[in-house]
Amino acid sequence: LVHNSGPLFSSCFTINTRGSLAIFGSVVSLIAGLFFGSVSAYGAYRITNDPHDYWISLIAAGVLTVVMGMRFRKSGKLMPAGIMAGLSLLMVLRLLIF
């Protein structure tokens, strides 16, 4: 059984890219983005080895959905909080449905 983990690795790339772009913002955003991107990449790697081992990715995407959703609700800004919350929610749904 081959599991398509392309969307998972794309999500990791997006999170890491957002984290590295935070150099122009705060150090906390940089660290959080790189941390969650790395955790998501590790979770995607685990899923490629065992499709039923999706918990790490699910927890990382779930935490990002909640945190970025709260930031979006507070600020009302679509970029970056709203987009990251939406992408993370899509990843949670993908992990739970497929």
Automatic annotation (TrEMBL):
Record's keyword terms, sorted: Membrane, Transmembrane, Transmembrane helix
Family in the record: Belongs to the TMEM14 family.
Main location: membrane
Gene3D superfamilies attached to this UniProt entry: Transmembrane protein 14-like (1.10.10.1740)
One GO term of the biological process aspect: regulation of heme biosynthetic process
GO cellular component, one term: mitochondrial membrane
Transmembrane segments: 20-42, 54-72, 78-97
Protein name per the record: Transmembrane protein 14A
Pfam families the UniProt entry points to: Tmemb_14
Localization: Membrane
